[in-house]
Amino acid sequence: MKNADKYKNNVAFQMKGKDGKYRQWSYAEAQSTAAALAGCLQAGGVASGDHVALLSENRPEWPISYLAIVSLGAAVVPLDIMLKREDIQTLLNQCQPKAIITSARARDEIGSELVSLEIKMEEFGALSAGAAPSSYPPVEEDDLAALIYTSGTTGVPKGVMLSHGNIMSNVISLTKHFAQDIKPEDNFLSVLPLNHTFECTGGFLFPFYNGARVTYAESLIPDHILANLRETRASVMLGVPLLYDRFFESVRREAHKKGRIMAAVFRGLMAISRFLPDQSIRRVLFSMVHKKLGGKIKMWLSGAAAIDLRVLEGLGLFGIPVYQGYGMTEASPVITCNSPRQDRIGSVGPALPGVEVRIEAASSEVIVRGPNVMKGYYQRPDLTAGIIRDGWLHTGDVGYLNRDGFLFVTGRMKDVITTSSGMKVYPEDLEIEFNRIDGIKEVCAMGVRTKKGSMGEDVGLVIVPDVQYFEEKGVIDKDMIERIIKKEVSIKNAGLQLHARVARLRFRYQDLPKTTTRKIKRSQLKKEIEEA
User: Could you say which architecture CATH assigns to the domain 417-531?
Assistant: First the structure.
């Protein structure tokens, strides 16, 4: 909170209200509200070492609540508002919070008998500034700051324990890494859920530490995001590959919908842009795109999954640099990241300052060491011992480092498909390839059982057709849609090595099941395709 004094007159947080106006909180207002909330929590019995749950959609009161909780030496337990009620109650039973802070939207998802003290965000306005604690307990670097439950794509979520030192080391490393880029004048648009570490560290604490502004998107509806970008002239955004892919495809499709001449002009501008390394000139070339985005885009950051290089390069040609990074909750979370001065397309960047990255010789697993590595899993020393060995965090990802220290992640160890011939296939590579087929909205590759009793796996593919694309082409019959896609898949298949070719194909007309960070739940899809 020291930076609240330094940047007291700057806008810290803002969000568009139902009246169409943006409600703003200055750093000074955020500080005073957090202090009053801390006093309320303290009066309710919250003390150093306690847990306080936080259950809400993204809104300015969320980061203010976070600041209030940690100032008391208590630990924040951010909960996912998209979880089912029974799952939320299971987590509350496990972490035993002394209090919970909720929004009206989230309120119905908890059982009041589980938490004795509940504070509603809608009542923050009634908090008295005089209720602030007269003194704050000392907080040490190794004290628990946050207990974060992972999204659990394959099983029960694990509670990741992050200390103040873990989180702040990551914030400071990001500040050093982007020292010439992020300024108090910047405005971050927040679209990812704050209960996930990528957005909490990178989209809240990082800009807050640097005196920048954070605008919370009013919803995840694409038109709303575009309106928020345009109206607030946001300069930075953290996102996932799916978000950027949808945006790139919408621009490309819009150009083609305007007829052959506009499509040709669009292709011509893209070709010219390849010879213009200066992003400012590219922005002029695609000024109409930037006008829709507010005209101040400085950079977008991508994480959580691999981004299609075609999308990465395409947005770059528009004059929108997208820098891909890599991390995991257990590392607070950022491990590596590209930046304006250190960028290799296809890589996830070099290690952040103070973070060490190595590749294990025998398995090619990416391992990490540094002050950002978690304290461990809550009440699970067995799991902690399995992932942190000799001080190194074993990520479960496979990759390699080039001679300049840039990390290239090639896949997840547990997701690698092992065929009956013993060959390895990385599903992420196949997904990027098949996603390039026009008319495919989403795709997931996985290893599926061959005939009963045999060893090895077949390469399976689940495809979600882009129905809107086909409707615009005058094709509405599902059988015809599937025949067209199957033909394109066969063509792609013929160009792959024999062991990597798709053997089993399934169509699905609902979006792929995902976690709230947009990671595909492969195990669920695998079960569906094996039982089909």
Answer: 2-Layer Sandwich (3.30)
